Amino acid sequence: MLESGQPAPLGANYDGHGVNFTLFSRHAEKVELCLFDQHGVERRFPLPQRSGDIWHGYFPGLKPGQRYGYRVHGPWSPAEGHRFNPKKLLIDPCARAVVGDVPDDPRFFNGTTLPDKQDNAGIAPKSLVIAEDFDWDEDTPLRTPWGKTVIYEAHVRGLTQLHPEIPERLRGTYAALGHPVMVKYLRHLGITALELLPIAHFASEPRLLRLGLSNYWGYNPVALWAVDPRYASGEDGLTPLQEFQQAVKRLHAAGIEVILDVVFNHTAELDELGPVIAMRGIDNASYYWLNAQGEYHNWTGCGNTLNLSDAQVMEWVLEGLRHWVRDCHIDGFRFDLASVLGRTPDFRQDAPLFAAIKACPILSKVKLIAEPWDVGPGGYQVGNYPPTFAEWNDHFRDATRCFWLHGGLSNGDFARRFAASSDVFQRAPRLPHASINLITAHDGFTLRDVVSFNHKHNQANGEDNRDGSNNNFSDNHGHEGLHVSFDVVERRRLSVHALLATLLLAQGTPMLLAGDERGHSQHGNNNAYCQDNPLTWLDWQQDDSGLVDFTAALIHLRKRIPALTADRWWQEGDGNVRWFNASGKPLGNEEWEQGTHRMQILLSGRWLITINATDAVSDLALPDGEWRAIPPFAGEDNPILTTVWHGPAHGVCVFLKQS
């Protein structure tokens, strides 16, 4: 039988003799622990003790593998934010493993005026007690300096599902991430950090299920502490968590960090008509931002918004993040819709959660990346995060596309983006790495589609092409789609090379979207969140080794240039950067505001980047000295140049000054 137990740590914790259970609920009147055997038979035990807002109990003799859930009793008063309903089995928000999915079934939905009386225990996902027994050997944090970090954003399944050199049984799984073939490829590119789209247990929205689709990206979380089992191969008898841990361990052995995309801004319970899975039934009024009528603030566009200014909800987030670092050796996090983290309810740079992360000896040491916006009032906060965070920089994305594809940018505007958007991020003590430079990401066109489509083509998503951004700054080079003449292919290739060179040779932290280096296309779909199929999976049979090698050469070149790896702001006369015009002379005051689209950038006194964003072949007079064009822009035997460079149209070249 249940003993009183302890109010900490959070969740279900096995101590070798039994399991201590805890559950936060400020407004509950009674909490029942529900245990299930292998046949699904349920036994209920009221948690015997309440310490403050934590309900807890200890069950002697219980072992890892035990399935459990909760039934929480309390008031039904939607106008006051309370939606308790003990007919609904709830998962543990602190569960580190969950089995089962959330189907589109009326038994998951609550009433609007009265609580629904259908019991859902027979079909509800169950929390799972686990043992922390993974052998990490001597694995330690890599702590790659920000200045030397190159991020590769990828989806677990999409990255490896079609890889012919990975055993079929492992494709699309955690095991495939750490497979020698994948590790070798990432090392060839020069990637230092693999950033994974969400792997925490998630669900497909009922609307998608009714359309015969599913959530692919994973931004619809069910259990934010739990590895999603759908990416587990079961190889070697490992649990999903152990398989993921093994992948992290192997990536670390190759010098590659692992960053997780986490979604601590909303849950899969969606709006008032969404399913009851956990928080809504545990303590709706505490977990979510509600208005005076008890309705959800939808600052995420997903139906609800987690209230991370609540002290106990904030502790749930902090301990969840610590779990990923302690137990999975995660090296950092990318926070989806991160403005929610700073809402009190207005966004504050000194919000309690930000302060707690900074003060935490575990979380303050890992890489923290914000998607610096949500869809609520005042949600766009690029450049306004505390120094512990780096931020996705959409200014860089849009400006780089405009410069190369539309010619609508001045020299000065381009230079500011190239210099880590110093006008946005240079605020002491922030450093250049705070600008996460990207041209593409999972959300939007792939790089090949940026140069192939003027318009989104999202009909497969079932929303009549209404979803996805209309503001893409793309250019199809005169023909919509992939099947074009050789001339158009060649012009697109030049644009791709120029965009990649700008991304990988600019100051700041570069993030490369998986597949861009292989010419991956989603056929114009710029919102492929519900396409778990070959549209989004990388086609490894498509051999574009030239583009792969070009990308790898750029990354390895980047690592040789101190001005890019030192992570220090460029200052006038410090030797890190000089800006020249097409005549090899320093840019004059008027030239900064012009859109000549021809310039030269000298980094660390030795590496000269020549830029011609026009459509015409152009002569560039190189600055004084002797220069050699270097790979990937020329062969090793390229002659030394001392005067004029007959530069290609729409392109970038890099020269090394001869000593």
Question: Can you walk me through this structure?
Answer:
There is one protein chain. This protein has 659 residues and is α/β, with parallel strands linked by helices. 22% of the residues lie in helices and 20% in strands. It is built from 16 helices and 29 strands. An 8-stranded parallel beta barrel has the order 12-13-16-17-18-19-20-21. A hairpin with a 5-residue loop joins strand 3 and strand 4. Helix 9 packs across helix 10, helix 9 (394-405) runs antiparallel to helix 13 and helix 13 (486-505) packs parallel to helix 14 (545-558). The mean pLDDT is 96.
Index terms:
single chain, alpha/beta, 16 helices, 659 residues, eight-stranded parallel beta barrel, elongated
Q: Unreliable stretches, pLDDT < 50, 5 or more residues?
A: none
Count the beta strands. 29
Q: Given the helix and strand composition, which structural class is it? A: alpha/beta
**Terminus-to-terminus distance:** 80 Å
Report the average pLDDT across residues.
96
Q: How many alpha or pi helices?
A: 16
Beta-strand content estimate: 15-25%
| 3D shape | elongated
User: How would you write the strand order of the largest sheet?
Assistant: 12-13-16-17-18-19-20-21
**Largest sheet entry:** 8 strands, parallel, barrel
Round the Cα radius of gyration to an integer and report it.
26 Å
Helical content stands at 10-25%
